[in-house]
Structure formats: C-alpha cells, structure tokens
Design a protein that fits this description.
about 300 residues, alpha/beta, Rossmann fold, seven-stranded mixed β-sheet, 14 helices
Length: about 300
C-alpha cells in the first residue's frame, strides 16, 4: 500500500516545535509519516509517538519506520492522547503536531468515499468504523441534515439540499458520492454554482465533519494536548477551514489569558496567570507551496508554547 500525501507547511510546522534532540514528541495525526520523518531528522536520543486513527495509515507508518527504534506507532484518535501516553508510561511530552486535514491518500482512494470528484460508495470514515456518510445521508431527518450542512459547511442553500436529499432517498437509498454530488448540484441555483468552486464541496465537508466528529472532539482534544506538554513544550496545529481554525484560535487565546481583574484594580486579586504564549500569530503556505500542492491553499498553522508554572 502506498500512502501518497504531501505534508503541508512541513518545515514551518516542525520548526515551530523547536525540537530538542533528546525530547519526546507526538505526531498526533501521522498519516503517511511526512511530518514524522522530518521530526525524526532532528531527534538523536529522543522519541516520537506517531498516532493515527486510520488503519491504512498505521500499516504504512509501521512499514516506513520499522527500523527506527525511536518511533512508537499507535492506532487511535488524537483526542485520546492522555490515554495513549498513560499506556506508554509517558508523563509529559516536549511537543505535539496535529495536521487536521484529510490526507491525499484518503481523498484519492475511491473506496474511502471522501471525494466528490470520483464515483464511489459513500463512506468518509477516517477510522473505517462506526457512522458512515451513507448513514448520515439516508437516516438523518431533513431538519438534522440541514443543520449539519449549514453548521459544518456554512452552506446557505442547506435547506434546499436537505430537502432534495430526503426527496431522492424516498425513491431509493443514496449510495454513491456521484449520486449525492448530483443532488447537491441541482439544489443550488445556477448563478451560485458558478462561484466558489465545486457546488458539492461545502456539503461534503459538512458530512465528513459529522461522520468523524471532527469539531465536536476538537476543543477537548486541544485542552488535553496542551495539558500533557512539559514546560516550554509547543503544541502546533494545522487547520484547513475557518470552523476548526476558529476553535484553535479561541483555545490558544484561552491558554494565553492572564489576569481578569478590572483595569482600575491596583493589584491582581483573581490570581490568574497565562498558561501559554504564542510564538507567532499564524503562518500560511507560501506561493511556491500552493502552486505545487493545490490542497494547501486553505492551510493555516498556529502554535502555543506552555509557560513554566510560577
């Protein structure tokens, strides 16, 4: 199995971790191992924990790093990082990287059902288990579908799309990505279809997020990842759409928030101090990277460093 994926913001994200050659680091969404490999280049006596929820990714990671004793590979969701590290008897780590994007392998493998560009069974499950896109499309009520599509896809024609999905599935179950894409297409006015890329993009994004619980799990996962950092450890996250970036930005802001006393108080009485600091505001791919990898266009890197406890 070949897991093709161009790691987005590769140098920038690994640089952000400020890797110590003897430190312990986590690639929380290891995928094909691109970021992991770059992290390993900077480790000598350190250790890397490579986590991924996708069994296909685990198979590739296992083969790629089979001869490197510094690597431990774990099949799990990064939202379970506390349990993962406890199982490995690791009390704290020096850096964590999480790339929240769907891998090129998942998008380009027809049977995974992530892409609206290819006709394939509706699936979209990153871990190949549980609720599928087919389940969402064929069992959610019209109201539930409209809410998912609007909330996670920011699609203004969500009600029309949901109504047409329910109308179509009353005749026969919706089984494939092409069927769903066509229903979405006819649900959007012709003028709107000519704007903003493929008309199915936002709805497919919304259903994928619902299937994998991406935004539901993210706030807690960020809190847990930050909590397992050692002092001066760095958490770096790459996002690919505004909804998840908003969550990351908000959580990082919370970590950096200090005294909440009114400005006219002569001294602090709340006792709150910042838990973290931002080494930079955010980083986006340069022109060269976006030209080489079209999928990197919407990527944004944010990082937060954990401050020592005073």
């Amino acid at each position: 199995m070949e897991f093709k994926h161009k790691s987005v913001l590769l140098t920038e994200s690994v640089d952000a971790l400020q890797i110590k050659e003897n430190g312990i680091y986590v690639d929380a969404t290891a995928g094909g191992g691109g970021h992991s490999a770059e992290m390993l280049k900077r480790l000598k006596s350190g250790r890397l924990i490579a986590i991924d929820r996708d069994p296909d990714a685990i198979a590739v990671l296992t083969e790629r790093f089979k001869d490197d004793s510094k690597v431990t590979i774990v099949n799990n969701n990064f939202s379970e990082i506390k349990a993962v590290l406890a199982e490995l008897n690791i009390d704290g780590v020096d850096g964590i990287l999480a790339d929240l994007g769907v891998s090129s392998f998942q998008l380009d493998t027809d049977e995974r059902g992530f892409s609206f560009h290819k006709d394939a069974p509706l699936d979209m499950r990153m871990d190949k288990s549980g609720l599928s896109a087919r389940d969402v499309v064929n069992t959610y009520s019209e109201k539930e579908l409209a809410q998912v599509i609007f909330r996670y896809g920011e699609e203004k024609f969500a009600k029309s799309i949901a109504a047409n999905i329910v109308r179509a599935r009353a005749k026969k179950p919706i089984e494939t990505t092409a069927e769903l894409a066509e229903i979405i297409k006819i649900s959007i006015p012709a003028r709107a279809r000519r704007e903003g890329g493929h008309p199915a993009r936002r709805t497919f994004q919304a259903i994928r997020i619902e299937v994998n619980g991406e935004l539901e799990l993210l706030p807690g996962a960020i809190e847990d990842m930050f909590s397992v950092l050692n002092e001066n450890g760095v958490l770096a996250i790459i996002t690919f759409h505004s909804l998840e970036d908003r969550i990351v930005k908000q959580k990082f802001s919370e970590f950096c928030k200090g005294c909440e006393c009114p400005k006219d108080f002569p001294v602090c009485v709340c006792g709150k101090t910042p838990r973290g600091e931002l080494p930079f505001k955010s980083v986006e791919p340069g022109e060269e990277e976006t030209e080489e990898n079209n999928r990197s266009r919407s990527a944004r890197l944010r990082a937060v460093r954990k401050l020592p406890i005073k």
